[in-house]
Amino acid sequence: MSDAPLVRGVVVGHGGLAEGLVDAARQITGVDGEAISALSNRGLGPEDLRRRIEDALGSGPALVFCDLRMGSCGMAARRIARERPDTAVLFGVNLPQLLDFVTHRDLPLGEIVERALERGRSAICRDEEPDGAHADRSAPGR
Amino acid sequence: MPIVLHRVDERLLHGQVVLGWGAELEPDRYLIVDDAVADAPWEQELYEVGLPDRVSAEFHSLDAARALYTEWSRAPSRAVLLTRLPSTMRALGAGGLLRGVPVNVGGIHHAGAREMVLPYVFLGPREREDLRALAEGGAVVTARDVPSARAISLERLLDG
Question: Quick one: DSSP state of residue A6?
């Protein structure tokens, strides 16, 4: 592990989405609140939401995971990233992406972003069955 | 059906508006009336991100909106008009411009002296005065965050 500060993650979403994702990531990996935290936009105006995200980010490099690109969460994160150094924003957060993030926080922020994009996308897939699997199961006599 | 929704929402163009109301009303364009955003191209880009392909967003100052309102209300396109604050909608409606028009209060959040009336509506003396004046000018003011919710009357908002 390098001496560079660990990247902090903040998940921001509508309703209870962020809390649920972070709770699941903690349950699976055992990481603490320093690694990743959750914020909901529920009941918050644009300025309050921005302040809470900024507080959660702390002072070091940070990655904000948002649910939607469009919307108050994404917009607040983008406003912050415009002014705050070492801050990246991703949209369409999912659990496999978060699990990869919490185990690679020691990497440079740019590298983490690329990993998160790749992990997030590749995690969305269909359950591919081997060729002929259906035919075999439905064959007479089975 | 020119302007299909007049809405006061601090977040202006966001998920509830585009996905919730947008699916219900199928607007062609969003008319954002806000002096600060009308003068901030970068902010405008933020709001335009994620809009459906066939839908546009326009950003106007209050003065420009008052000048264009009659044209908008006669246009064949379906528009949703958004202001951040009740005071902006009140000023837009000055002189009876919004007489008989339903105005939807969709999101005024906690700040300063505002107190919670609904989970998505916090009102202080200034907001109460603006909404009252808007109604006295002929607008039909109710609160409703999403189309599937029940509309809450202005009387109940002001009693809250």
Answer: P
ipTM of the complex: 0.76
Assigned token pair, A15: 């309703």
Q: Which residue has the tokens 């700040």?
A: B111
- Report DSSP state, residue B95: G
- Angle at CA of residue B71, ends B153 and B21, nearest 5°: 40
The answer to whether the Cα torsion of B27, B41, A76, A119 is positive or negative is positive
CATH number at residue B35: 3.40.35.10
pTM above 0.90, yes or no: no
Tens digits of residue pLDDT in B11-51: 999 989 999 999 999 999 999 999 999 999 999 999 998 79
**Number of folded domains in chain B?**
1
Question: Would strands B115-118 and B121-123 be described as parallel, antiparallel, or unpaired?
Answer: antiparallel
CA distance A45 to A42: 9
Q: What is the pLDDT of residues A16-67, one digit of tens each?
A: 999 999 999 999 999 887 899 999 998 888 999 999 999 999 999 999 999 9
Most A-contacting residue of B9, B16, B49, B120 (CB-CB within 10 A), to test interface: B49
Tokens of A6: 């660990």
Side chain identity at residue B88, one-letter code: T
- Point out the residue among A44, A47, A69 whose CB comes nearest to the CB of B49: A69
List, in order of start, the domains of chain A with CATH numbers: 8-126 (3.40.50.510)
